[in-house]
Write a structure and sequence with these properties.
globular
Length: 310
């Protein structure tokens, strides 16, 4: 029987996953419908729509893997880790491209490279999305190889096979596959990190200029810049913790007890869930669609209540 603290973290994880899937499903529905109706989308909305779809699948796979692991179906979990690794890698790349896009479009750097990127990036979004899909498919091969090796290790141990073979597989997994997997995840993370830090520096520099011209702290533009800086700082911390937690899990630097496994999962996926909320609230298009859905739901509820009391 699990402890009360474990049950609390299980409930929190389920609620967090449900909220994340609802948010990302809402973004996919709104932006996908506009994409199909108009046959095009603004470049930033294209990245957000693809990122929301990948995160929806990522949270669903995380929930499924944790449930299977809780019921001791670990051999099946090894097979489900293959699509999870693909979706996770794709999410990393899409998050990196979204950070690069915002950095190029919002930052006020006057360097010729930034001027060229501002002109070029909107035209290259479809290529970046297709490239992310191809890169994720290719770079997930080491992770697939790792999972196949792990399945073979479990089979060889259960059948009392050769221990020397198991030791060789473990050595190959630790010293060859693990560095490749870490490198695969590090490249998009470094892109995200550099782009976010540059954007934060640009916003901070612009905010100092506004304050130097005696702009009021309650000025809408000043408040918008301050809120953007806080949101970026918040997401930078959480996404870095998500990256580090995955590296720790892949490298098996530490082994968590069962009672802390769900707490680890809650903290790991909290940043992605909250960033989805930020994307919904920061987009005028998504915010307007959310208000319309809420008003329709409230009007329908009031109609049902008034009909029941008649």
């Amino acid at each position: 029987m699990p402890s009360s603290s474990t049950l609390i973290f299980v409930v929190i994880f389920f609620l967090e996953t449900l909220a994340a899937m609802l948010q990302n499903g809402f973004m996919v529905a709104v932006l996908g419908r506009e994409w199909m109706r108009c046959c095009t989308l603004p470049a930033g909305d294209m990245i957000v729509a693809c990122l929301a779809a990948s995160r929806f699948c990522l949270h669903g796979m995380a929930l499924l893997n944790n449930l299977l692991d809780s019921f001791n179906f670990r051999s099946i979990v090894s097979y489900f880790n293959i699509p999870w690794n693909f979706i996770n890698t794709l999410t990393y790349w899409l998050t990196a491209w979204l950070a690069v896009f915002y950095c190029v479009k919002i930052s006020s750097f006057s360097h010729p490279i930034f001027c060229w990127l501002k002109w070029r990036i909107s035209r290259s979004v479809l290529r970046l999305l297709l490239g992310s899909l191809i890169i994720s498919g290719v770079t997930v091969i080491p992770a697939v190889t790792r999972d196949i090796i792990l399945i073979q290790m479990i089979a060889s141990q259960s059948s009392h096979g050769n221990c020397t073979l198991v030791d060789r597989i473990r050595t190959f997994h630790r010293y060859f596959l693990m560095p490749i997997i870490v490198l695969v995840l590090s490249i998009p993370f470094l892109l995200f990190l550099v782009s976010t830090l540059l954007l934060m520096f640009s916003l901070h520099w612009h905010l100092r200029q506004m304050r130097a011209h005696r702009s009021s702290p309650r000025d809408p533009s000043t408040q918008a810049h301050t809120m953007a800086l806080k949101s970026l700082t918040f997401f930078l911390v959480f996404y870095t913790s998500y990256f580090l937690s995955l590296i720790i899990a892949f490298m098996k630097i530490t082994t968590l007890q069962d009672q802390w496994h769900w707490a680890w999962e809650v903290v790991t996926y909290a940043g992605i869930c909250l960033h989805s909320s930020i994307l919904v609230l920061s987009s005028p298009k998504l915010r307007k669609a959310l208000k319309m859905r809420l008003w329709k739901a409230l009007d329908k509820k009031q109609f049902i209540l008034s009909y029941q009391y008649q």
